[in-house]
């Protein structure tokens, strides 16, 4: 399979105050040609799920593995999501990896975004 034509990008984080706790929200964006589907997961240095995504109108959550996927089969282009860092500190890195489906017989797995290192989340 040729290299992915898609970019999985982590954008600048936002900090919000919620019940006297600082919550870190990190936008995650997929850009490239139209796609049929995606599965994006947040993992730590040990490949364990970390944090959670925030559901939007065109997504479905898989909280058990800190992942988000599409909720409808129609074409999608330039989709964005918000990932919420764990509320209690984390000493390692966070990686975002995706499987992106362009066609049923044409997909890319292990598409990684830039690594987030403490204290950037």
UniProtKB/TrEMBL annotation:
Domain of life of the native organism: Eukaryota
InterPro entries tied to this protein: Ferric-chelate_Red/DefProt, Reeler_dom, Reeler_sf
Key words, A-Z: Antibiotic, Antimicrobial, Immunity, Innate immunity, Secreted, Signal
Domain Reelin: start-end pairs: 1-121
Any GO BP: defense response to bacterium
GO cellular component: extracellular region; membrane
Localization annotation: Secreted
Similarity field: Belongs to the insect defense protein family.
Protein name, per record: Ferric-chelate reductase 1
Organism: Hyalella azteca
Lineage: Eukaryota, Metazoa, Ecdysozoa, Arthropoda, Crustacea
């Amino acid at each position: 399979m040729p290299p992915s034509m898609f970019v999985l990008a982590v954008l600048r984080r936002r900090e919000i105050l919620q019940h006297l706790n600082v919550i870190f929200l990190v936008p995650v964006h997929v850009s490239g040609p139209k796609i049929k589907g995606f599965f994006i997961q947040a993992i730590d240095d040990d490949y364990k799920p970390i944090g959670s995504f925030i559901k939007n109108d065109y997504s479905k959550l898989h909280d058990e593995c800190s992942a988000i996927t599409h909720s409808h089969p129609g074409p999608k282009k330039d989709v964005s999501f918000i990932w919420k860092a764990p509320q209690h500190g984390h000493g390692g890195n966070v990686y975002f990896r995706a499987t992106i489906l362009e066609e049923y017989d044409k997909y890319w797995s292990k598409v990684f975004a830039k690594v987030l290192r403490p204290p950037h989340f």
